[in-house]
């Protein structure tokens, strides 16, 4: 009977420890909607973001900031959350953490950024656009969002082409988001020659 009691106690302790870990480190969670392009390619329809330096409110503010800076209809929050993870990792250095926390404080005062209308969010971003925080987040958005494979699939980027012979003969003219130009605007760059 004592052994069973010890096992239950260990299990309860483990569950309590796990809950404390989740409360401390999991700051953003989400579900990929079934209509999203990510639903067909992501390994799971749910996601969670672990952060060590940012709390949930700060992480959500960064996520909203990224979505306002680089809005893409239909791009799931899971892709924008990569920015939050990367900014959190940059906060390992005291200087960066100070810049980020000060910037988040500016972003959320006098009212939380997430509660502002779209127009008020743009106005708020315009008011802080000269800060180190704004520049750091904007720069990190570019690499975190646009270098991520899920975003690249969303945008139709097929990846590097050098190993496949270059872009000219591999996808140069397969743009799906632009109208096809007239034939005179896109002459063949060279003729293919076949040696007999």
Automatic annotation (TrEMBL):
Q: Keyword annotations for this protein?
A: Membrane, Transmembrane, Transmembrane helix
Q: Looking at the record's lineage, which domain of life comes first?
A: Bacteria
Report TM segments.
25-49
- Could you tell me what this protein is called? Gluconate 2-dehydrogenase subunit 3 family protein
What is the species of this protein? Paenalcaligenes hermetiae
Q: What is the lineage of its organism?
A: Bacteria, Pseudomonadati, Pseudomonadota, Betaproteobacteria, Burkholderiales
């Amino acid at each position: 009977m004592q052994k069973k009691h010890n096992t239950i106690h260990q299990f309860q302790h483990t569950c309590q420890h796990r809950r404390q870990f989740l409360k401390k480190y999991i700051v953003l969670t989400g579900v990929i909607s079934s209509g999203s392009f990510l639903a067909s390619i992501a390994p799971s329809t749910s996601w969670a973001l672990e952060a060590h330096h940012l709390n949930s409110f700060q992480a959500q503010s960064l996520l909203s900031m990224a979505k306002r800076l680089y809005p893409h209809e239909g791009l799931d929050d899971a892709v924008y959350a990569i920015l939050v993870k990367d900014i959190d990792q940059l906060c390992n250095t005291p200087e960066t953490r100070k810049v980020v926390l000060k910037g988040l404080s500016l972003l959320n005062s006098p009212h939380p950024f997430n509660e502002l209308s779209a127009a008020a969010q743009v106005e708020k971003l315009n008011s802080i656009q000269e800060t180190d925080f704004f520049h750091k987040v904007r720069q990190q958005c570019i690499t975190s969002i646009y270098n991520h494979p899920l975003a690249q699939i969303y945008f139709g980027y097929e990846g590097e082409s050098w190993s496949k012979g270059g872009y000219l003969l591999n996808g140069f003219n397969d743009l799906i988001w632009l109208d096809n130009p007239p034939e005179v605007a896109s002459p063949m760059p060279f003729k293919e020659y076949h040696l007999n």
